[in-house]
Specification:
This protein has 196 residues and is of the alpha/beta class. It contains seven helices and six strands; from the N terminus they run αβββαβααβααβα.
């Protein structure tokens, strides 16, 4: 019985340390200064946001104000700074990647999410350009075969459109499933990648 209590205490201490590290990281992230810029692509407007550590957000849309509000909603305690000049290269690289996906994209990322989301997003980045996977495929790749719904939720929470290619995830019957930035954009991206 004493061994069980010692194990439980050690586990609780480990969980508390992990929670404290997570909370410290959350506090740091919530007070970041985030620079962002908005540009145009063939599939609409693209908002790119960056911290000192790398890209935090890539959003797609049709309205600049709506994109800014979405960024504010994602990072409510961050200081947002519009910085078209400072983000020219990053924005240009993301737009070029949208237009010519075969060229790849090599920018530092500051992925912010739960450990599970991070695992899913890493698996998504391993789906090759021109290929697709199902939610169940991704669940199997991360060693959680019964978590297809949770994978879908992680895809929906993806803060880096195109960069973390959740558009490459399709339904188990091969048909397009929903896409946070519109099924037509998803179709356009997949068609462009298939021709790359």
């Amino acid at each position: 019985f004493a061994d069980v209590l010692v194990f439980a205490h050690e586990r609780l201490m480990h969980d508390n340390r992990a929670l404290n590290i997570h909370l410290m990281k959350e506090r740091r992230m919530s007070h970041d200064e985030i620079h962002y810029a908005i540009g145009e692509s063939s599939i609409g407007l693209v908002l790119v946001a960056r911290s000192d550590d790398g890209l935090t957000t890539v959003l797609l849309g049709t309205d600049r104000d709506a994109l800014r509000r979405e960024l504010e909603g994602r990072l409510p305690r961050a200081t947002l700074v519009e910085d078209a000049t400072g983000l020219t290269a990053a924005l240009g690289a993301v737009v070029a990647f949208i237009e010519r996906p075969a060229r790849g994209l090599d920018l530092p990322l500051d992925l912010r999410g739960t450990p599970f989301q991070q695992t899913v997003w890493k698996a998504l980045r391993e789906v090759p350009t021109g290929s697709t996977a199902t939610y169940a495929d991704i669940a199997n790749r991360i060693g959680r075969p019964t978590s297809a719904r949770a994978v879908a939720q992680a895809c929906a929470a993806n803060p880096l459109a195109v960069v973390v290619p959740c558009h490459r995830v399709v339904r188990s019957d091969g048909n397009l499933s929903g896409y946070r930035w519109g099924v037509e954009r998803k179709r356009a991206l997949l068609e462009r990648e298939a021709g790359a």
